[in-house]
Specification:
By secondary structure, the protein is an alpha/beta fold. The chain folds into 3 domains: 154 residues, Alpha-D-Glucose-1,6-Bisphosphate, Chain A, domain 3 (3-Layer(aba) Sandwich); 210 residues, Alpha-D-Glucose-1,6-Bisphosphate, subunit A, domain 3 (Alpha-D-Glucose-1,6-Bisphosphate, Chain A, domain 3, 3-Layer(aba) Sandwich), CATH 3.40.120; 84 residues, Alpha-D-phosphohexomutase, C-terminal domain (TATA-Binding Protein, 2-Layer Sandwich), CATH 3.30.310.50. The chain has 15 helices and 20 strands. A 7-stranded mixed sheet has the order 1-2-6-5-3-4-7, sandwiched between helices. Helix 14 packs across helix 15. It is globular.
């Protein structure tokens, strides 16, 4: 499997040839390139500090050891959160006064994958420009290591789960009292990663005492495909029904994506995680919203109804954050269940998402299912076509753009083509060697038809 280098980080499978996978050599090389950028930006003689944390992957301890040793060898101090979450590391970077952070996680990818997610001094993902500089330095191996008496110090810190939870409890729109009064019964699918520790701890702090945790051993041997999609959450759905729970919660291995299951075992819909949380926030704090252009148009409708303005962005958390800052958005994120609350921190955070969603639900008289029925029923058909290195995607997209030239087209990020009230978005993935084909309509059959039509167009161009 190829090594993927993008604004989402350095990602690859463990095991295999250097340069083709995320080998130990590649971990050291890209960590050193990142360290070189931090040292260049900091100037001479400044003490540099980096916060690191990892999800529960089998390779996590090994990769973490390589990263820590490499940073130390460059004279950079390390604050190691060990088993943690992506949003927790993001919060820890500014609280530690650190120069950056590295999260060791391949997010929703299967267990054989791992990655380096790279943060700046604000705890936000590095820019595309910094990413390009990092790739150049890594390619040239343009970095220097320090003498033995200048090695960086490595310090363990296990206090940030509680600091993260305390910050959530203190966030003004989180209604702990209302949540506790509802006496919710909740089933959590922790997918054998750090959500097994963080999500129950948060729920307990919010006054939720009746919690059932599935896949709670942090082994990295994921019980199912770790992407929180409906076909991967059948155990969660059936357990919610069996246990007569009020709702189910699913997170991905690094706890930045979030989705819910209704009391009858049906999916609330990962696209509607952001819609519901945004509706709650906008009801208390009117303003603007942002989501990437592969996300449901329901967010735009909710935003306009609440008197705000909606702006789409290119796919990728760094792009969403940039657009949120430009438009002064009060809430934003991605339709994959990623919630970004800007005055909390500029990063997808399933934990603050859980607290805000439960605050919203606690303020309603009905069930989670009745809450879902308050929002429009749109369907997004999510598909992909695997690529090999010989395929010229730019040429394929050029031909398809010409074919649909009479339709409104946005080519800021791949191709987004509009068909009356429906749309399809074609783009290469930041994290996998594929073309993603997402389409949305008011009927599932229509969304599937549009997606499959464009997939056939792509396949014809590939032949």
């Amino acid at each position: 499997m190829p090594l993927i280098k993008s604004i989402s980080g350095i990602r690859g499978t463990i095991g295999g040839k250097t340069g083709d996978t995320l080998s130990p050599v590649d971990v050291v090389k890209f960590t050193a390139a990142y360290g070189a950028i931090l040292k260049k930006n900091a100037g001479k003689d400044k003490n540099i500090k980096v916060v690191i944390g990892r999800d529960g992957r089998i390779s996590g301890a090994m990769v973490s050891s390589l990263v820590q040793s490499t940073l130390s060898a460059m004279g950079i101090d390390v604050v190691d959160l060990d088993l943690s979450t992506t949003p927790t590391v993001e919060i820890a970077v500014p609280l530690e006064g650190a120069d950056g952070g590295i999260i060791l996680t391949a997010s929703h990818n299967p267990k054989e994958w791992n990655a380096l997610k790279l943060l700046n001094e604000k705890g936000e993902f590095i820019s595309a420009e910094t990413g390009q500089e990092l790739l150049r330095i890594a390619e040239a191996e343009d970095f220097n290591f320090v003498a033995v008496d200048k090695l960086g110090k490595i310090q363990k810190n296990d206090s940030y789960m509680q600091k993260h939870i305390d910050a959530i409890l203190n966030y003004p729109l989180v209604n702990k009292e209302a949540i506790a009064a509802k006496n919710f019964k909740v089933v959590v699918d922790a997918i054998n990663s750090t959500g097994a520790t963080f999500v129950p701890a948060l729920l307990n702090a919010l006054g939720v005492e009746n919690i059932i945790v599935l896949n709670k051993e942090i082994t990295g041997n994921f019980a199912h495909n770790p992407e929180p999609l409906p076909n991967h959450l059948t155990e969660l759905s059936s357990t919610v029904v069996k246990e007569k729970a009020d709702l189910g919660i699913a997170v991905d291995p690094d706890v930045d994506r979030l989705c819910f299951v209704c009391e009858d075992g049906s999916m609330f819909g990962e696209e509607y995680t952001l819609v519901a949380v945004a509706d709650y926030i906008l009801s208390l704090r009117p303003g603007n919203t942002v989501s990437n252009m592969s996300s449901t148009k329901a967010l735009k409708e909710v935003t306009l109804k609440r008197g705000g303005a909606y702006t789409p962005s290119a796919v990728g958390e760094v792009n969403v954050v940039t657009k949120m800052k430009e438009t002064n958005a009060v809430i934003g994120g991605e339709g994959n269940g990623g919630i970004i609350v800007p005055d909390f921190h500029y990063g997808r955070d399933a934990l603050i998402g859980i607290a805000l969603f439960l605050s919203h639900l606690a303020g309603k008289k009905g069930s989670i299912g009745s809450l879902r029925r308050q929002y429009p029923d749109y369907f997004i058909s999510k598909n992909k076509i695997e690529l090999d290195s010989s395929i010229d995607v730019a040429s394929i997209f050029k031909s398809i753009k010409e074919k649909y030239a009479k339709n409104p087209i946005n080519d800021e990020d791949g191709l987004k083509i509009e068909f009356d009230n429906d749309w399809v978005h074609l783009r290469t993935s930041n994290t996998e060697p594929i073309i993603r084909i997402y389409s949305e309509s008011d009927f599932e059959s229509k969304a599937n038809h549009i997606a499959h039509k464009l997939m056939e167009d792509i396949k014809e161009e590939i032949k």
